[in-house]
Amino acid sequence: MEQRLTKEELEAIRRWPTPAVSNAIELFNVRPRNEGFMLSEIKSVFPDNPPMIGYAVTGVITADSPEGRRVTPQTWWEEIQKIPPPRIVVLHDVDRPVVGSFWGEVQANIHKALGCVGTVTDGSVRDLDEVRETGFCFFSSCITVSHAYVHLVDVMIPVKVGGLVVKPGDLLLGDKHGVISIPFGIAKDIPKAAQMVEDWERRVINYCKSKEFTIEGLKERYGAPRPTWPPNPSVT
Length: 236
Known about the structure:
The chain is α/β, with parallel strands linked by helices. Helix content is 31%, strand content 23%. It contains 8 helices and 12 strands. The chain has helices spanning 7-14, 18-26, 73-80, 105-113, 128-134, 184-187, 190-209, 215-222, and strands at 43-44, 52-62, 87-93, 116-121, 124-125, 137-140, 142-143, 151-155, 159-161, 164-166, 171-175, 178-182. Strands 1, 2, 3, 4, 6, 8, 11 and 12 form an 8-stranded mixed beta sheet that branches. Strands 5-7 form a two-stranded parallel sheet. Helix 3 links the parallel strand 2 (52-62) and strand 3. Helix 2 packs across helix 7 (190-209) and helix 4 runs parallel beside helix 5 (128-134).
């Protein structure tokens, strides 16, 4: 795992919504603009929850049959501790269609006690009222009523969830818009970059709301130089 961020650095990123973080990442040209985030199939179950940020712990689950490979809960809990907090559990469900839920009131409380702030899964979740009260975040593809034969079949390997490959230790941010991965090499600069983009956008938005609005004025402001990284001192 790459160098861990401080609590203050993580909190500085968490203050920004995921769309703003996505805009900020674009300034660095470290990945294509159509990569690095989960697709719309992964939705926040509790969109009014505060944003979550943390390092990924990963696993693979199935609920369709009790047969086959099985990782014990005790082994899983020990593996979780190898990643620093705050942690986000990312689980790939191999069943299609999804049969049963790993996540409910019991697992949410266990994993919260283990230093996890939420989960992201292309499987399902349940016990929504009970989990909502805990503040534990659920991001999932669906909701189901049963846990069926759910169990872990592999842990701490790269998994693909919502079109995004997530490796153990990856830095993730999730809110009501979705989930995005933040490259470690630029993570500390994300808040400053996000503010640069926000400042540029705000000039356009405020002008559109003003009584002085004209098409010519909009063209001038929209055509102003966009922010770049490293910051260009001539762009104010």
